[in-house]
């Protein structure tokens, strides 16, 4: 929150002396925006342009010269042109010798070129010190001053001193430089702004698919069935009742899917007798998005909690309860307390509360700033021990919720079992498999394999 | 959490050899506290003082010498005196030549002097390498060892090596140095500890004002009106019922105010036909505190959720429900299920739950550690797409809540409409304006303008 | 979340040229895992081994040579052997002169040796530049590529350039280096991965003890007493009712224990008349784990909220309410609204909601990434002002909950007061003491003492 104010500070006039001139090649939108911002932060700016005539769009305090003249005025030259036009720099090689060239370019596709733009630039002008920076910042954000998004600017380059100079400019503009090492990191830095939640695609598609399936499943059982057989209109179940069936089911299945790949990996390693062979590709990808799967599961669990807690203020529920009480009063009978029911109801709620509580704890520890403060041993403890405890509690919650309804024939409409029964399949498999893997006769060889031991060492050669 | 323990580690005796002597000018409270801490961390400490006689307050293991003698014993000299007394350093210029001077001073007001204290120090002793550091740490925190607050120490300076030396000391004391670049950053670093949530002032004042207005509005409608006309004492509404009206109203209005400046900015840019003119000052400031406005709105939304969920355990609500059921039973009639009401009630709750859920997601992505892991494209996607979806859901939640009461005369007491109707004005304006701006005839020129195109380029020259 | 993908990037073939050869001494599990990962990231790897014969486990693309031959091929040598075997390096001292030696070792116990492994290594090979790194990464995580835990690699060393080289390798492997300063930090870095939530031990043990005590206390009062005297089976209270008594009690007591040490410290300082004497050890430790105490208290408060909100959907509660309504209907009487009860019920709920809301705010500001964005003044404001307000609200919540039951004889079963009465003792002591300390006659000298003033300065010499 204070970052914004620090930004304002940097614009204060008293910091406007002493800065060294910066040259910008290219008078396109990004070059102009960067120039504007630099002038505001007290840097004298010189634009290098083909035409060398002042365009009306260029900030007034900036000079516009030919490329060669502009380059001679500054030690740092920002190359704000597109990669396709980089070859205009070749004739300038002599003037650019020893200068710091800042590559700010982005591509349109991930891994568009065999080498990164910055590395290509370094090849074109071998005498210059190339630094990659600023590509993650948008011209619009620079201009409007409303940098609410990440203020991190990734910087990489082979020359330490050149990198320091660029990082100082980044700081002066009110942004936070992050040193990503040598110029080899440029490819990664150039790919970064093109991603849109890459790790989230699979978990979200999977949960959308499952949501659609369970929605129609519940629609058939809970809305269409009573309409056909009892001619009752329960279409309003679509708003809360059915979502409150889907959410816990998805939360449970997705949570189990977080722990399934670990179990599969253990089985594969036990079967192969070595850890030195790569897992199948799908398993690798699955393992990489476990955190995202878990967070989507947590989202569904949170929705389930909210949907459950509003139950008593639903108009339908109030009607059902009051009509039941009225009929009791009219029939002049009072029900005694059914202790078994009280036990079932309370323990199923308690298990759900504890499971959700641990689930939220898991979610909090997966926040970047929290997991950075936790060492490997602590992280393993939380994610593995607490994670399995959460899975056990949530599965138990569902089992107790089922209670004595599992075998009741009324649970099967059109031979379709209650949806929650389907949700128990995956978690039960995971828990049983994990339970089996804990036995010493399996746990011991697995530990040995993970420490590097091999059953049949011949094939790895 | 492990930071605390790392602090303990640094005090362990086995690290107490090898450190280089540090000199501290000034035996005031902060100088002594820093000296204490450095001795604990294994640094030999020499105090430079006017009187050169050991005071009882100075740590026992430290030497106290004259300024000149003390300065000669160390490569790093911490200037723990106030800016007004810096001129005693001028005669020492020769001895201080080449030394690292650490400016730890703070001011009483933001931007108190034209240049920062550290820059002033650098002017006074031109031969020394001035580094700004430690000004964000309090003497009390250093002394008591309970550094629960931020352990970040901002460091800036023009000499890389001097900065590294100071950063090593910072680390040795169990704190985290943060390189803020050259000495130009000193002004900002000196202003930093004087701020008290500067970006939060406007959102909090605004919400306090709106809260007061809506409190009295609801008091008149819900407590005074029934007291005057029906002689009923509903004063206890002040505890929950009225807050539960105010909270959702403020959440909705503030959320709409987050998106209003963006719409205004687009209108201004379309009207002006350029992006190269600054927005009016109030709009700039408004845009800078959108995140804070959103978070205050989220706080009100969370309170609304809590207030709503306790409804069924309120004594008044239980009484109302039971007396309604008893009267039904006594009148010997059972109400049939009103499907329309069930639909309205359920869909209004479902919209609220989904809106709140997305709102919490927005809040989580605004956590610094999360938004740092998100690139510009992803941030835009979350804050703009998800943000508008949240606004739409919350507005729909309020509209459906109103349901068929909008035109009912009972909603107007003393010609005052229900408070929630007032809350709909701003969000509806924002949504309609945004909807209009999406039309290609407006969206296209706007995109062009934001890419640097100008309708009347003459004026900018 | 993007970190994972950046990891994938680093494995792309186009970055596999240009890297400098790295030598690894030791072909154990960690050495091999690191070698695998480095080869994947494009580093030519040479293993130095006693036997110098290729083992089947060693990555195929790596060479295996004798120690001396391998060392000559690379500027960076990773020492992946255990500390006990370091003495094989002494005869190689000449070859290792000027090389960068990376110590990756860990110990089995905290502070196992008088000096850290890295410092021991630096003593053994005085001509080499020793850098400590990689000890916080596990071989299993490196191999499986699923580095979901912290990607931070702590790096320390006395030679800046050597440290930079190692940090570049760390970045190339997709990890985040964190410069911890000179080699003196090695001890702390080596202790780090051995910790398991050291600051949480005391708060968790304390809360487990208190939980056990209050569980049996409530069991006697709420389950055994009615069973003995009224022969009623309320054993199902164990699931929700009793936890929902224990949770608020523990939340309140632990929250008060967060503020008690501050009050005690003030009293001790006032009594001693100085701040220059260390607090007793137990008070120091207590103060260091206040954050953890507060977070455990918040966990209990959250559970209390969840347990409370499910009350209306508990089977027992529904039965109790409906049987009460039925008996009212059968007795043909309607209760009038009891305004006092409505006031008590609503204000107790409202106090609880506000208290919990502030408590959650306190918890959010204690997230590392948030507290890092807050300066000392802001942190003090939140933790002290908001903290005390939370304590006041929560204590008031409990007092109003008690309402007029404090003196009712039915509250005392077997002479045991209601459990919530016990929970009020500590918070009331803290609030009264704090209230007394605010009086100017005590606040003034305390402020002076904290600014360094002493009542009897003689003893400190």
TrEMBL record, chains A, B, C:
Instruction: Write down a Pfam family by its short name.
Output: F420_oxidored
Q: Which reaction does it catalyse?
A: 2 Fe(2+) + NADP(+) + H(+) = 2 Fe(3+) + NADPH; 2 Cu(+) + NADP(+) + H(+) = 2 Cu(2+) + NADPH
Q: Which cofactor does it need?
A: FAD; heme b
Q: Which residues form the Ferric oxidoreductase domain?
A: 249-394
Q: Which UniProt keywords apply?
A: Copper, Endosome, FAD, Flavoprotein, Ion transport, Iron, Iron transport, Membrane, Metal-binding, Oxidoreductase, Transmembrane, Transmembrane helix, Transport
Q: Which residues form the Pyrroline-5-carboxylate reductase catalytic N-terminal domain?
A: 21-107
Q: Which PANTHER family match?
A: DUDULIN-RELATED (PTHR14239), METALLOREDUCTASE STEAP4 (PTHR14239:SF5)
Annotated family: Belongs to the STEAP family.
What is this protein identified as? Metalloreductase STEAP4
